[in-house]
Structures are given as structure tokens and as C-alpha cells.
Amino acid sequence: MSTIGRIHSFESCGTVDGPGIRFITFFQGCLMRCLYCHNRDTWDTHGGKEVTVEELMKEVVTYRHFMNASGGGVTASGGGSDSAGRIRS
């Protein structure tokens, strides 16, 4: 069975969340409620959609040439991208 995570959205060619051109994955759900959160629309733990690792990688590889040419990569953002239990297998 594929691992599934609840994803809010993707940004395909981000340039402010790390070096080079980035593929940014915004995870859905966060219980921290930081006062100055930039992504409050990701707080709802029931929002977004479930995505498998294979589905996520299919999106990422589409932009690999841009990331490789610019020294970029993938950024995990949130919502709570580090919250245990959000990703399951």
C-alpha cells in the first residue's frame, strides 16, 4: 500500500522557500495556530486531499529540469509538514 499524506496544494516554481527553483508541497492540517502563520488556510485537518507518494513524485519530476538547472529542489511546507500521524502507510 502506498503512503498517503493530506496535501493542501503544490507550488511548481517557487523562488522564496529555499535556493533555486523549488517545488513546494503544502501539507494540510496544523494544530499549532502560530500567530503570524502565512498559511492559515492549511490549518483544517480535514481539508485538502489525500495524495500517494507516487502521485506526489509524478508532479515533482515534471519540474526536475528547472530544479536541476537552478540548484533548486523540493520544499515541504504547511500546514504541519512535520506532524506525526498526518502521513500513513
UniProtKB/TrEMBL annotation:
**Repressor among keywords:** no
- Alphabetical UniProt keywords: 4Fe-4S, Carbohydrate metabolism, Glucose metabolism, Iron, Iron-sulfur, Lyase, Metal-binding, Oxidoreductase, Pyruvate, S-adenosyl-L-methionine
Give the protein family: Belongs to the organic radical-activating enzymes family.
Record InterPro entries? Aldolase_TIM, Organic_radical-activating, Radical_activat_CS, rSAM, rSAM_sf
The protein's name is: Pyruvate formate-lyase 1-activating enzyme
Q: Name one GO biological process term.
A: glucose metabolic process
Entry EC number(s): 1.97.1.4
Q: Which cofactor does it need?
A: [4Fe-4S] cluster
Q: Tell me yes or no: is Chaperone among this UniProt entry's keywords.
A: no
**Entry GO MF terms:** 4 iron, 4 sulfur cluster binding; [formate-C-acetyltransferase]-activating enzyme activity; lyase activity; metal ion binding
